Amino acid sequence: MPTNIQRNKLFVASCLALLVTSLSFGIRAGVLNQQGIDFHLTATELGTIAATAFWGFPLAVVIGGIVVDIIGMKKLLVMAFIFHLAGILLTIFASGYWTLFISTLLIGIANGTVEAACNPLVTSLYPDNKTTKLNHFHLWFPGGIVIGTLIVFLFNKIGLGTQMQVGVMLIPAALYGYLFYELEFPKTERVSSGVSTSDMYSALLNPLFLFMIICMFGTAITELFTGQWIDVLLKNVSDNAILLLTIETGIMVVGRGFAGPVVHKFSPQGVLLISAVLAAVGLYLLSHTNGNMLFVGAIIFGMGVCYFWPTMLGFVSENLPKTGAVGINLMGGAGMFAVSVYMIFMGGFYDRLVAAKVPAGTSDADMANVLVQAKKSAGPEIINATLIIPLVLIIAFAGLNIYMRRKKVATA
Fold first, then answer.
1. What percent of the chain clears pLDDT 70, i.e. is strictly above it?
2. Is the dihedral of CA 311, 105, 84, 181 positive or negative?
3. CATH of domain 7-411
4. Which of 56, 112, 145, 395 might form a disulfide with 61, Cβ 3.0–4.6 angstroms?
């Protein structure tokens, strides 16, 4: 690697950029319910607003993955900073549904641009340790969610509103914008290794890559939908719903910090299978228990989804290296797109479940209590419906382990 490339500083700046991305998820999860109250929004409207971040993400990550080899990672990350700044400021000064919609879209585009540049940056900086370093980098996604949810919790306790909570994101955004503007960047791994553009696009048609794209739909929905909506879905089941997210993501931080020995012991595909099993158990507990058992469910669920995202990317980067930055970013874009569609569908499903549980002729005086009970029942039903996804993933990843074992024997 050229001597002018400051690898450690670039990695730190990448982590700061991902911290802003994750803060947007954690803080949005915490303020979403309050924004619904402040601006008189339905669950369907809240679901659409939350999903908008996931629309902007795949748009940016796919386009970014296509152009990153051409314009370079530095220009993409300066663009990410501009979109983050605009989205954060517009959220702070939001006046209703449409301003929240647009601001969330801008933040989603910024988040996708960060992933489009930083994932290939990390694999270029650490070509011999991709999956582990991607896990260390993506540690800051759950880490930022923990910080974000604690900010929401503490700021609410001392009476600071949603504007102040969102404004906190300006600090790490300014830091990463400055660092990326000052530092020199390496070429992407695909460019430096001499893989042609035509070979890269041909590799995208590999059946294994297409299989991993489909699995990414499921891993992303399992992790991100549940985390983003946990406060809404379980608010009437637990007085500490947002702390469930904090516990879950705290487990993810610790797990990703120890990714190296775990990945080397079980292999990426082995880690994915174990993760699907734990995620299924965690979702079952979150949807079928209450009280302290909800915290047990959050711990097990956090252990389950801990390695999903970075290990999916690491598996593709290690086993399908010719797919390059486009391959990694198509994986991320596919995951976020799936989450956006699922959120909209589930937002409407949640509204219908609640409406169906309100008896006809309920008086205005009784409506508030009836709605609380309806939402208390509907939230766990949504989580239980999502349980089918990790159950399918268990079968898929079991098959992947068999395939990779046979492939290793055949090439030995």
1. 92
2. positive
3. 1.20.1250.20
4. 112
The HSE-up count of residue 231 (CA atoms within 13 Å, CB side) is 24
Whether 115 and 15 have beta carbons less than 8 Å apart is answered as no
d(CA 332, CA 327): 9
User: Are 120 and 68 a contacting pair, CB within 8 Å?
Assistant: yes
What is the C-alpha separation between 295 and 126, in angstroms, rounded? 36
From first CA to last CA, the distance across the chain in angstroms is 31
Query: Which residues fall within 8 angstroms of residue 21, CB to CB, at 6 or more apart?
Result: 110, 111, 114, 115, 141, 144
Which tokens belong to 364? 């205005």
Residues in the chain: 412
Distance CA 121, CA 128 (A): 13
Q: What is the pTM of this model?
A: 0.80
> CB 292: neighbour CB atoms within 10 A?
9
Residue type for 2, please?
P
Residue 356: how many other CB atoms lie within 10 Å: 10
Q: Which amino acid is at 44?
A: T
- The rounded radius of gyration (Å) of the Cα atoms in the chain is 21
DSSP helix/strand/coil, 68: helix
Strands (E), 70-169: none
Locate 74 and state its tokens. 């530095």
**pLDDT tens, 120-165?**
899 889 888 888 899 899 888 888 877 887 887 788 788 777 788 8
Ordered by start, the domain boundaries in the chain are 7-411
Give the contacts of 8 (CB within 8 A, at least 6 positions apart). Answer: none
Rounded Cα–Cα distance for residues 37 and 235 (Å) = 14
